[in-house]
Design a protein that fits this description.
62% helix; mainly alpha
Length: 85
Amino acid sequence: MIIEASIPGLFRTILIIVGVLFLVRFIGQFMIAKRNMEDEREMRSTKRQFQEQKKKASQDLGKTNILKKSARKNDVEDVDFEEIP
């Protein structure tokens, strides 16, 4: 079998290569846009949670909460200090 190089075959090969590169670039841009949208959605969610916590903290400003000793996770014992002469 003899394979001959021809001008139409060369152009077809070049067109296929350019088409594949264009398709890969388009898919890459689409994936980047999708990732950016997900990042933006996550940032908005984080910002909303921060604003809700800030609003709740400002509403609770000056209020006193009494917690039971068993409710604390880190039980801390009181320590008596003695003055050194």
